[in-house]
């Protein structure tokens, strides 16, 4: 059990006007709680969904970014050529990755969706991943998705355009 500091100790340490050590212990206990909370949140796995014009990529990584599993619309057997562009191909890919994530024993995930496509397609992919993860577990199971983050990069009017070329008209 730590000893309580006396007034002479605080004066000798140059902390005479710093307040009591009890308040410092309170601040330290709050910072320790924050560290424990941060350690718990770092154990979450991430599901990266990239919806581009010609393909769909779904990847599951750990908090450090190491890939655990993933698939694209082209790697499915029945989806080749133009059929991988459809909304159904994106849903099938997400469901396939959801099933493999369930087999790996994931508990909770954070979804990161990227792609300049319609929101309907994003929503369908997220829901199909969840259905693939749940499997035949039923409707009563809680959702493994903690939150969904849309990380699509949006332009902010872009770069400045180059100066317009000036051409002098010389009269003949």
UniProtKB/TrEMBL annotation:
Tree of life domain: Eukaryota
Pfam families: Ribosomal_S11 (PF00411)
Matches recorded under InterPro entries: Ribosomal_uS11
Keywords from the UniProt entry: Mitochondrion, Ribonucleoprotein, Ribosomal protein
GO molecular-function terms, A-Z: structural constituent of ribosome
Single biological process term from Gene Ontology: translation
GO cellular component terms, A-Z: ribosome
Protein name (database record): Ribosomal protein S11
Gene this protein is translated from: rps11
